[in-house]
Amino acid sequence: MKWDEFFVTGDPLIYGADVSIVLTMVGILFYLTKYKKWKWLWTEWLTTVDHKKLGIMYIVSAVLMLFRGGVDALLMRTQLAIPEAKFLDSQHYNEIFTTHGTIMIIFMAMPFLIGLINVVVPLQIGARDVAYPYLNAVSFWTFFIGAMLFNISFVIGGSPSAGWTSYMPLASNELSPGPGQNYYLWGLQIAGIGTLLTGINFLVTILKMRAPGMTLFRMPMFTWSSLVTMVIIIFAFPILTVALALMSFDRLFGSHFFTLQGEGMDMLWANLFWLWGHPEVYIVILPAFGMFSEIISTFSKKTLFGYKAMIWSMLLIAGYSFMVWVHHFFTMGSGAAVNSVFSITTMAIGIPTGVKIFNWLFTMYRGKIQFTTPMLWSLGFIVNFVIGGVTGVMLAMAAADYQYHNTYFLVSHFHYVLIAGTVFACFAGLIYWYPKMFGYKLNERIGKWVFWLFTIGFNVCFMPQYFLGLDGMPRRVYTYSEESGWGPLNMLSTVGGFMMGIAFLVLVYNMYYSFRFAKRETTGDAWDGRTLEWSTPSAMPPFYNFAKIPEVTGLDHFWRQKQAGKVEKLTAKDIKKIHMPSNSGVPFIMGSFFFILGFGFVFGWMWMAILGGIGVIGTLIYRSFEYDDGYYVSEEEVIETEKISK
Amino acid sequence: MAHVETHDPNTPLEYRSETGRLNILGFWIFLGAEIALFATLFATYMVLTHRIADGPALGELFEVKSLLIQTFLLLTSSFTCGLAVHEMRRHNVKGLMLWMIITLGLGLGFLYFEIQEFLHFIHEGANIGTSAAWSGFFVLVGTHGAHVTFGIFWVTMVLIQVAKRGLTPATSAKVFITSLYWHFLDVVWIFIFTAVYLMGMVMHHG
Amino acid sequence: MQRLKPFFTIGLVMAVFMLSGCSEMVVLDPKGPVGEEQKDLIMYSIWFMLFILLVVYALTAFIVYKYRDRKNHTGYDPDNEGSHLLETIWWIIPIIIVVALSIPTVKTIYSLEGPPAETKDQKPLVIHATSVDWKWVFTYPEQDIETVNYLHIPEDRPVLFKLTSADSMASFWIPQLGGQKYAMAGMETELYLQANESGTYKGRNANFTGEGFTDHTFDVMAMSDEEFEKWASETKADAPKLSKEQYDKLMLPGHVKEMTFSSTHLKFVNHADQADYALDARERLGYKSLVPHSKEAKERREEEKKKKQEEREESESHGDSHAH
Question: Per the CB 3.0–4.6 Å rule, which of A57, A276, A493, C39 could disulfide with A239?
């Protein structure tokens, strides 16, 4: 590595990014110093172990990543709008679709959902925090550092360009030399550690920290979906860890797992990647299903239809998610028997998914449907996700898939499930729980504009792509010829893409507008909710969540209490002192060492990697010897916070 | 974060604090993830085991003597580790320390012979870059070895804490968790012994 | 419902607009039995999917309209939490649909493994298709000839493609003749295709292989048996022999024009057995793969751009240049 290659140069887009990064940094530093916010930042956020704050930090990072991934998408759409455009060259385009895919899945969809899970699940089960609050902070910081490491590739060293699937041998040293691919490996590896820890943390939290009386079959559906998701994470992420490590060995230490030399096996990478990758798509869709269940039930004013069937279908989907990975490469020539089996298992996933769709519809049946923005997103989900679902079944038919594979038909399918499923859920959940996080709702009128702009833009963008696929347009081409005839539909698609971009800006504007002008909530129950998170007296729960742990008697406990007019009011004698975990700066510091470690490996500077590694181990040892048992919040303080009159 | 301590004398020491109970459950789940991790490495090894390119076959270089010594050391260490936890439950700090230090000694012995064996293979012209098969071997067995190394450091740290603080619900839960980890590594070794060494030698000689 | 109306309208308009172009879409306009079989399966499935969409949309529209919150709301039942009958129905119907889709799928999967039924008595023409970044080498072992970036095949006769790759994983795809299959180094996969109409079809690599992927294409010319035989024997007689040096040069990443040889590369190497040949050849020729953002790489890219531009100008000045 030569120093003049350290910074990426020679492209106006990149200089623009450089300037904006520097300006943003200076701006933030200036703001923090001028308003004396450094201490606030450190004590309130960087060292927090509070699940609600960590959740908010996850969500803020995810929104930033949505912006970054979205800009990537619009750059691609601009390049593809007309035939033989010269806006981006091939290398640049390849980098952009690689970072778009990776960022949207790993650094946007997952943290967005994990953020919402962080905020909501402990509240929904009536807990004061997660099982391991400190570990939760470690999870966040490893995710955040992984994301930052991946993102700086844009300005330092160059971005990866082998696709988010990084098939070997294309991603090998010989065909993709340089730090780009290493960024992919180490960004994902470090973030993956955090995800695995989140999996363990929330599994134990949900299993062990539920309020008394909340049996498994009284848990809200979002908590159920989180539980199932965590189990998938625990079994899927180690596969990714190994796959990434093996490719790192191939690139750094000359091993031959997937290489052309030494009889390495490129097909093994594809198998390992999708053995993780397919469960991964269920990791990002199941929590979405859970959120829609909550929202549809709340705004239909009705119990969820077929609660148990919802759970069983989710468990079935989770099981199936590990048995279908081969459908990502039916065209590898595994033979008729293998392709037939995986065709059928894949189609079979459609059965429980279909059941869920009908259960959502019948949750609304005989309900009293209110068209709030979260509900609009949920209805939009049903209508659009079904399109993604049925085309998924079409792709599952291996013999037909030979014609869809690697085309825009596939691209459109997974955007229909990931956007109409996951992204719609992220928006719906964000708006739904926004008052829980910030104490006021987002403006509903602007919110509806966002919904219609985004949903229409989404369809205008992706519907044409099904037809482009059937017309033989392969994915990942950076341009196409005039005579291919793909021009008009591509232009249409680009228009839709920009509509989605505008919708995102309006959403951000809505955050600002509501921050300034929204009416502040006076109770904890902003939407006439059904589950425990709405039962806190104040709009934003205090750091200990519940002054008194609720006792649950059934499904939708809070709703039933309200119906019966029996909502308990806290009295001073209910209050006991509360044990809480202490804040810690160690997770943040550990994250910083992970950054050094990752950066060292990216450039092959072993001294730096070792230094970072020693730092990480040092923080582990420090934590092991630190016997911090947390602290107690006194009765007086709780009474004062809860404004209980004596 | 509940903070309830149980004082029922029939409850093992390590299960008496809420934190201890949660940590032990969490660690069991972590071991589930470790199983997925090693399963992936085993699958990789199995797929690649015949792809030896120009290098030697795997079974060609395996040596029974070194293998048996390593196996004996690690299996015994698992037994002594069990004894250590037994002593802990009898509140015998000295016994705990003694058996754990023996466990560590056996673990170090295992590592010594494993490193010797690796050096021998490298000397014979088989390293991580020789062929896909040898890459699979070194990374699978090496990951296990790295786990043992990490375990030795970890147990040492926990023993220092026991020496400093005595047996408390917190330290005893830590000892118990490290023992789970140690037994797990033993189980993984049994699979390595069978799937890598025995099968490798049978394929080659048999 | 009122609120959802624009949404449905837009969907409908778009669907009609795009379905009207259906017959021209290459995948639905096959020119051989393999593509035909796949098209039939696709159309069969599309009817099911449209039926599912119709059911879900009708149900959604009905429920959302009927049970929207309004004055004089009727039928509200907050504790209606399930129905065994209904739930059984919607477990069973999807199962039936999956079975109905599985049977033809499995049949077609098995059928595509062999030559098309209509010509299964004929001896298929064997062609080795080898992908090298970013070109296709086609070898006719029986005719002992080799072409680069174009393909001649006889019509009404099955062609057995033996696919492999010298480097990255590629996917061999001629949409109008049938679905794709991967070409991988150190592996040989097989794909039967057949053209029933003479004409020129587009073929390409469909699997991303890096910088030159977009132009990793070839033309397929289907012609009568006699024409094919004539072309093959003329090629055998007139085309130059392929030397090892020349073949090694083909191993360098990049694009080349169409080429024709009267001998094949199989006497030097079969990449299905020797995955590292191309990398060795590159080393022998002193080719260095460059970090994309290094100065040298940028210079190399500039040069290639210039070369491409010149080629384009040249071909424009010569008019349409289909040399064969």
Answer: A276
